[in-house]
Write a structure and sequence with these properties.
Blueprint (H helix, E strand, L loop, with lengths): L17 E4 L6 E3 L1 H8 L5 H12 L4 E3 L2 E5 L4
Antiparallel strand pairs: 1-2, 1-4, 3-4
Length: 74
């Protein structure tokens, strides 16, 4: 679980398989390591909270040319 600057826990998506798509028709799995090290690493805290909350809710969210979501049925 990740905490913000106020030590409030943000949504945790580490136990879910995450996938991404450039066009919403073909989805590829992305490892948690790659997601954390390349996609989420430099996001401002507020944008990170939104990203984690949307993905954890089961929706897809656009970020840097891709859509991200938890793999359906995963």
């Amino acid at each position: 679980m990740v905490s913000d600057k106020h030590h409030i826990e943000m949504e945790d998506i580490t136990r879910f398989p995450v996938e991404r798509s450039a066009d919403y028709s073909f989805w590829e799995e992305i490892s948690q390591e790659e997601l954390n090290e390349t996609v989420l690493k430099d996001l401002p805290e507020e944008k990170l909270k939104v990203f984690l909350g949307v993905v954890r809710s089961g929706s897809a969210i656009p970020l840097n040319g891709y859509y991200y979501r938890i793999r359906a049925g995963g």
